[in-house]
Amino acid sequence: MALRIKLASLMVDDQAKALAFYTDVLGFVKKHDIPLGGEFRWLSVVAKDRDDIELSLEPNVNPAGKAFQQAMFEQGIPLLSFETSDIDAEYARLTGKGVVFKSEPKDAGTVRIAIFEDTCGNLIQIHTA
Q1: Tens digit of pLDDT for each residue in 26-53?
Q2: When you count CB atoms within 10 A of the terminal residue's CB, does the N or C end of the chain come out lower?
Q3: pTM of the entire predicted model
Q4: Contact between 124 and 102 (Cβ < 8 Å)
Q5: Does the structure show a pLDDT above 80 at 83?
Q6: Minimal CA–CA distance to 78: which of 10, 18, 14?
């Protein structure tokens, strides 16, 4: 049996803000929201059309994690890439919702990409083949 991706984690500076952005703006669906005591919770989202791959929105409270997140942001390096079938339409939809893009859709080898800020300390890429 081959390995497969089931869960990926993304550090966010505010879980409530991240949940609102990833659901209300990007269109993902909340899958888990389990209190872990105090202000933290196990929080994950999935794509509307499939729920077998989760994105965990992790509270970024580790100083090393914060330094990594900030360095990647400052260098313009996205931490995730989401696929879309029509990057130009998705760019227009997200721009209409106030998403701040660092770049308009552009060709990058065999794909087209665009990079935006997720309001939670990360750069995220969208791509289409």
Answers
A1: 999 999 999 998 888 999 999 999 889 9
A2: N
A3: 0.93
A4: no
A5: yes
A6: 10
3-state SS track over 40-101? CEEEEEEECCEEEEEEEEEECCCHHHHHHHHHHHHCCCCCEEEECCCHHHHHHHHHHCCCCE
Instruction: Single out the residue of 100, 129, 93, 128 nearest to residue 115, CA to CA.
Output: 100
Q: What is the DSSP letter of 120?
A: S
Hey, what are 82's tokens?
């989401």
CA-based end-to-end distance of the chain: 28
Residue 10: name the closest of 75, 80, 77 by CA.
80
